[in-house]
Each structure stands twice: as C-alpha cells, then as structure tokens.
Design a protein that fits this description.
863 residues; alpha+beta; 8-stranded antiparallel β-sheet; 29 helices; 38% helix; flat
C-alpha cells in the first residue's frame, strides 16, 4: 500500500472543494499529518472503507454536508473507534492534537454561521402550542383544536424544529378554521348570564342503563345485561316488568335507593351512559356520581346439566366485597371519548365529585374499569373474576351535574373580543351592537393584538386587519361576524403563528416566549410580559425565579406530557393493542393502558418536582403505581385506582423508565417484541447514540409465533456478518436485557406461542375466552456489552448502565435543548453542554437543575 503524503492530502482536499463548488483551505497541518499516517491506507480511492475517501474529501466546513462528514470523523476518532483497534494506535498526544485542531476549526466555522443566522431556524407553533395558546388567550381550557390540524413534522425527535414545521395552504386553511371555531366558542351565546343549574339524572331513567335489562335476539347473556337494585338487593319483579322501573318523583326517598347494576365493563354492546344529559354549552361543570360495589351470586344449578357457576344470577345481589375503580369519560356520538377522571367506589354508596370541562353536546359515560368485557370466541365467554360463590359488580344510582359555572359574565374570552359592547339576540342569533363600527373596530383589534402578540404592538399594525372587518361588514354580516373575521386573521398572522427571534442575543420578549413555550407549551402570561416590558427578565435571578414559578404551576404538566410524547414516543401508546390471542389477559384492558401512561408522566414529573438525579431514568428505588399496575409489576398489593409513590422491593426489576409498561408497550407491536427495536430505542432515547439504519439489502427478521425459534437465535446470523456486527454489538445487549418483558411490560420467563397440537396455558382472558396460547421457548436475557462486561438479566444490565449516568444526563440535556430552543445541540454547543453538566454534578445531575442551567445558558438565551 502506498502512503499518501500530507502534501497530496492538501492537494486532494483543494481539488475536492473545487468539485463541490465551495471554498476550502488546506486542512491544518496536524489534521493532514494524522490522516496521512493513520487513515489514508484504508480510506483512499482504492479502498474507500465505510464509503470514505480522503483523497476526494474536501475540507470545507462552510458546506453543511462536508461539515457533517468531518464531525463524524472527529467523533469516531474521539471514541477510539478509528483507527480500528487492530491497527496501530496513534500516540495520545498526537490524537489529542488532531482532535483539538479539528474541533477548533469546526467550531469556528459553525459559530460564524450562527452569528449570521442563529442556532434555530424560524418556525411556526406546533399543534400542541397553537391549541394551548388559544386556550390561554381566550380563557377557554376546554378548547379541542389540536386534532383538527395536520400532523406536525419531526426533526431531532421533536415537533419543535422549524425545518420540519412547514406552512402550506392546507396548514393555513386548518389554522383559520381552528381559530374561527375557537373564537365562536367563547362568544356569548345569549344576552343574559346562563343559569347555573344543579340537575340529577337517575340511572333508572336512562335508556342505555335500562335497555339492556331485557334480553333480545342479539343478547341472551346475563353478563351483558343490566339489572335493577334497591339498596343492595335485587328487584326481579322490576326486571320482569311486573313492577314500575322507578317510583319517580312521587317517592323521593325510595327513588334515592334505586340503582342499576352490572357485572361487566362498559363496552359494546353494554354501554351505559347518562344520555339524558348533554352539556348545553362548552365550559366548566361539576359532576357527581352516586355508585357502590356489589356482589352477584352464581347461577343456580340445573338438574342434569353441568354446573355453570360463572354465569351470574341477577336475582342474587348482595353487598360488595371490595372497592371497584370507576373511570369517567365524556362522550360525543359516535363513541368519541375523552378521559375526565377516575375514583373508587366501595360497598357503601358514596358520592364522588369531579371538576371537569365539557364540550357542548357531550354526555357522561362511567366505566367499571376492572370488570371484564365479554367477547365472542371459540366458546361461550366466562368472567375471569368469577368464583364459585359469585362475581363482583357495580351499581349506579345517579349523576348530578352542576353548571355551567362562570366566574364572570360575559366571560373573559368574550370581553377580550367585544369589551363592554351590548349583546343582542334575535331569531338570526346573537350579535354585538356597535354605535361607531369604525372606531370600535380599531379599538378592539388593537386590544386583541396586544394580548395575542408576544411583543409590543404599534397602532399602525391594526391597519392590516381593518380591511378584513370592513369587507365582511359590507357583505351584510353583523358586527360580531366581522370582528371574528378580523381576529381570525390576527390568529393566522406570522406574528401569532410563528416564533419570532432574531440572530444574536434574545431580547426580553423573545426570552419570555422561549421560556413559556418550553415549560408551559404556550404563550407567555401577563407576569412574563410585564417583566419583559420592564427589561428585567434577562437578569439571572429574575429568570431563575420565573423558571421556578412556571415549573411549580399546574400548566407545567403540559411540558411533561408533550415532552414525553415525543422523547419517549408516548403519543403512540394507543397505536397498537395487545393481540387478543397471544395476550388475552391484556386485551381490552383500558385501565392498564391508561395507568401505564399516567405512571410515566407522573414519574417524570416527580423527577422534575424533586430535582431527582438523572440516573433515576435507568433505575429508581420507587415507582408510581395504582392497584392495577402494582399487580402487573408484582409489587406488594395496594388497593385503589389512584396513583401513588411506593418503594420498589430489593430484587424487583421495576424502578426507572426502562421497565415501565408504557415504554415497553411503545417499543413492541402488540404481538411480539424485538431486541433490535428495543435496543435501538435505548441507545437513541436514553443514551443519545444514533444508530444507522440497516443496509437496504438486509432482510427483516420475521417473528416465529409458533415458538420454535427466538429472535435471539435469528439474530446470531446478523452478528456473524461484519457489516451487521458493528451495530448489533451495541444495540443487541439492551434489547436482550429487556426480553424479560412482554408487549405490555409484564414479566415473562417464556415466550408465548400458538401452534396446533399443543396444550394451551390455563386461564381466562379479559374478554372471557380461555387462553389459546402455550408457553414456548425460555427467555434468555443475558448479554455482553461492547467492552466485554456481561450481565445475566435486566437487574445486572441496569447496574452496568449506571456507569454511564453522565451520558444519560447528557442525553437528557440534549433533549431539553432541542425541545426548548428548536435546534439540536450543535458541534460548537458541546462545550456549553459540558459546563451545564459540570454545574449539576454535585446533585447527580438533578432533572430540575438541568432545566435551570439550560435556561441560564447562552444556548437558551441566543437564537
């Protein structure tokens, strides 16, 4: 092999730059010499290993693609991956000189570009931010507009980067429709303040509760029927229509004791809801539900027939034996559900209250979430909760609704739009009367813009929108419609829809916006704007105090939820469902799926709230669970649907994000798990190490649901091929460690499989069908890290991973920076990130401390 001299390297670089059409100087001598002695043999025009040819590679860091290539060269050399270990290694001083020189040149080139253009590209608000900004501006927490907008693009994991947030005519049309809808939602629908009424809706008077009491050609199963109870006793004469369904208002005392029972969860065809109630207007309500748990006896034996004790006897009802969790949803037909809250009901009737925001037309649908859901299958369904002396159930008595509730009338949203102008009502609807439309148009638009825009507004800016209002007035529309047209234009203007930042140091208004969109996912409030107007927000002590205020506010949950939706992909938790045949014990278990999501959200919120070290992402001595999750995790039993912090016993594999059900669900497909997918997820989401996609010629590995081979066995072929082994040696170990967890995060010692001629596992699924799967190959969760250290299971893997807790904190800091600034951690930002890590070392890189240090950093305070 012929050596390429440093002179030839410099000449090749200049020739390559000319071919690219970019300016390039010869690489500094230390770079050229290092390449000549340690790289050129394998990366020249003859060999081009890894697709890299130094003879053709220019040194032109002003070119983004060229810059990226040199960054990869820097990082591979810095990590000790290049030159490869089998080659002669450079002297430490020589390597350090090469890295320092290359780093200095790359940093200088990048910072020159940042000085001209800034770190972040200009961007629009994403769907989350737009919805929250409208809610806060119009004081309308119930607004639902996010799902009416097109899906946001992603870059660097998040929907916060301008390069991925395009603005098309479709996008603008949707924004206009969303703005118009939101504005009309907050406009007064009548002249007088709506009366706040308290109305009770009795279960015995709801058709969806009493209809299933009668069997039909489509349903002859007691499990799918509702049944009347009086106190805690059955009323067979009422069910047989030999007595009235309800005593009604004629006997209020007895009416209070009437209820409707069931032994199944709310699911087709049994879908009880309080259908007599429909929210008259969108807004704030207080709802109360009277319910209690019951016990329903077993079916009576029939002479000459097998005893089927699992079929309930709806005439044998007694006091419940335990509490039952109730999940409450609002429902818009057909079956559009929104989660409102949850509570437990015990054997004694109790009234449970929820403070909720409802959309106009929504009704209330309660669900006895622990109970089973009967589904057709190979045989007649059987309640998995039934025992030989009966099965659990729940009885509902009534729903009471108080509302709509108003703090003032007209509402803040209406007053923002129309001030104190009088409201009139006619057959044509509601309108606002203006004695001087020209003057009121200018005044109202200016006031609205001052609230909507996140910077000072000059009076002349109003002139952009006055023609919109005038044109609508000329068409014959009323003043209210005309103003809504003008306001819609404001809410779709660049000043509202885009994040305005100029290259260089951010001014106080830009800081207020960046801080608020970071920690509240919405526009800044009055306090932040006031501090910005006074020029005080940039002061470190003021900025720190405001960061604390925002983190302590309930709106910070928006940050937690939206951040996790993208960092951990939690928004995809409903994208797959556990397979009904392989995982019938999880199938249709909404309580488990909802609890799993809430666990991860509350766990991360706990890390932020208590400033817990970042290593808790890997493993923690606590978990946040309810009864369902505690049972799923094999933790000491607890009772109740409420989430709470509990200690993780020694030896239990739970604690930390890696072994939470939500994370394990989004890294599976509902049927199988893949060590590759989970391994890549750990490498990228937890450690921040990018894994390149497999070569196009590499075939996908198909899972064997018959259970004859495992994915580990199939992966052995990939690991023996050099081109595959480079990546698989890194991604397979974490994936193997997580193989002890199934598609819903449950612990397993064997894989599940389906095959003819095998004896299925004993058990009954949530849908009432007997298990059809059998236990196949044993799980092998052992592995070896690239450095040679071995582990036998997830517990040992977590302990090994703790040696990289600084890298975990570094990656978390990177994710925060992308989310907060709309730009990735660039090469020239790395030193600043390391300083942030140094300042948080004493507290183990506390999560709240990381947030504070990022907000105080130049990365955050410059575009």
């Amino acid at each position: 092999m012929i050596k390429i001299s440093s002179r030839h390297v410099r000449a090749a670089v200049l020739a390559g730059a000319a071919a690219l059409g970019v300016s390039a100087a010869p690489p500094p001598k230390p770079i050229a010499q290092f390449i000549e002695f340690h790289c050129a043999d394998c990366h020249d025009g003859d060999e081009e290993k890894g697709g890299l040819d130094f003879a053709a590679l220019a040194f032109a860091p002003d070119d983004p693609k060229n810059f990226s290539t040199w960054v990869k060269i820097h990082d591979r050399a810095s990590a000790g991956e290049m030159p490869p270990k089998k080659r002669e290694r450079p002297e430490p001083a020589e390597l350090q000189t090469f890295l320092a020189t290359l780093s200095s040149n790359l940093t200088q080139a990048e910072q020159q570009g940042i000085a001209r253009e800034g770190r972040a590209t200009q961007r629009r608000l994403n769907r989350y931010e737009y919805e929250n900004a409208l809610r806060d501006l119009l004081d309308a927490p119930w607004l639902q507009v996010r799902d009416s907008l097109p899906e946001d693009g992603e870059a660097f994991r998040f929907n916060k980067v301008g390069d991925a947030l395009d603005i098309s005519h479709v996008q603008m049309a949707r924004y206009m429709a969303a703005a118009d809808y939101a504005l009309r939602q907050v406009m007064a629908k009548q002249v007088q303040r709506p009366a706040t009424a308290t109305t009770r809706y009795y279960a015995r008077e709801q058709r969806s509760f009493v209809g299933p009491m009668k069997f039909s050609a489509f349903n002859t199963a007691p499990e799918r029927a509702t049944f009347p109870v009086f106190g805690v006793a059955a009323q067979p004469e009422v069910r047989a229509a030999k007595a009235p369904m309800t005593v009604g208002a004629a006997d209020p005392e007895k009416r209070e004791l009437e209820g409707v029972g069931l032994v199944a969860s709310t699911y087709e065809p049994l879908e009880p809801k309080f259908n007599q109630f429909k929210a008259p207007v969108a807004g704030h309500y207080r709802i109360r539900i009277n319910a209690f748990s019951i016990w329903v006896g077993p079916g009576k034996p029939v002479k000459g027939k097998p005893d089927r004790w699992w079929i309930p006897d709806l005439e044998d009802v007694t006091r419940g034996r335990r509490s039952e969790p109730i999940t409450v949803y609002s429902e818009t037909p057909p079956r559009q559900l929104r989660h409102l809250g949850k509570f437990d009901v015990g054997p004694d009737p109790t009234v449970n209250e929820l403070d909720v925001w409802l959309l106009a037309g929504e009704t209330i649908r309660p669900d006895a979430a622990r109970l089973f859901r009967s589904r057709p299958g190979a045989g007649r369904w059987q309640n998995p909760l039934a025992v030989k002396d009966g099965q659990p159930g729940v009885a509902f008595r009534w729903l009471e609704v108080e509302g709509p509730l108003y703090d003032e009338w007209p509402t803040k949203g209406h007053r923002l739009l129309f001030g104190d102008l009088p409201v009139t009502q006619s057959d044509a609807g509601v309108d606002v009367v203006s004695a001087d439309p020209s003057k009121d148009t200018h005044r109202l638009l200016l006031g609205f813009m001052q609230h909507a825009y996140r910077r000072p507004v000059a009076e002349a800016e109003v002139n952009r929108f006055v023609p919109v209002v005038n044109a609508i007035l000329k068409s014959g529309s009323g003043f209210a419609d005309a103003m809504i047209g003008g306001y819609t234009s404001v809410l779709c203007s660049p000043e509202f829809i885009c994040v305005a930042e100029k290259p260089g140091r951010l001014d106080d208004y830009a800081i207020a916006s960046r801080l608020s969109f970071f920690l509240w996912n919405s526009a800044p409030d009055a306090e932040l704007r006031t501090l910005a107007a006074k020029g005080k927000l940039h002061r470190p002590e003021v900025l720190r105090a405001q960061t604390e205020r925002l983190l302590n506010h309930a709106k910070s949950r928006r940050f937690v939820d939206a951040f996790l939706d993208y960092w951990l992909d939690l928004r995809r938790i409903v994208s797959t469902a556990p397979d009904s045949t392989l995982y019938p014990d999880y199938y249709l278990d909404d309580l488990l799926a909802e609890s799993a999501l809430e666990e991860t959200q509350q766990f991360f919120a706990e890390l932020v709230r208590r400033d817990l070290p970042a290593r808790n992402i890997i493993t923690a001595d606590f978990a946040i669970v309810n009864e369902r999750l505690a049972a799923h995790y094999e933790l000491p039993p607890i009772e109740g649907v409420g989430m709470r912090r509990v200690p993780v016993p020694p030896g239990n594999p739970r604690g930390g994000l890696l072994t939470q059900a939500a994370v394990l669900k989004v890294t599976a497909n509902g049927t199988t798990t893949s060590p590759v997918l989970r391994g890549v997820w750990v490498m990228e989401r937890i450690l921040g190490e990018t894994v390149p996609p497999p070569p196009a010629s590499t075939p996908a590995i198909e899972p064997d649901i018959r259970g004859t081979t495992t994915l580990r066995q199939q992966l052995e072929r990939h690991r023996t091929e050099q081109s595959c082994a480079v990546c698989h040696v890194k991604i397979d170990p974490p994936g193997f460690a997580l193989e002890s967890f199934d598609v819903m995060g449950g612990w397993r010692d064997h894989y599940r499989a389906i095959a003819d001629g095998t004896v299925p596992q004993s058990g009954i699924g949530r849908g009432g069908q007997k298990f059809a799967f059998h236990l196949a190959q044993p799980v092998d969760a052992t592995g070896q890290l690239p450095d040679g250290r071995k582990f036998s299971d997830i517990r040992e893997f977590k302990q090994l991973l703790l040696d990289r807790e600084t890298q975990v904190a570094r990656n978390l800091g990177r994710q925060f920076i992308v989310y907060a600034t709309g730009a990735p951690v660039r090469f020239s930002d790395r030193a600043a990130l390391e300083k942030i890590l140094q300042r948080t070392t004493a507290g183990g890189h506390g999560v709240r401390s990381l947030i504070h240090e990022i907000v105080q950093s130049d990365i955050f305070l410059t575009k």
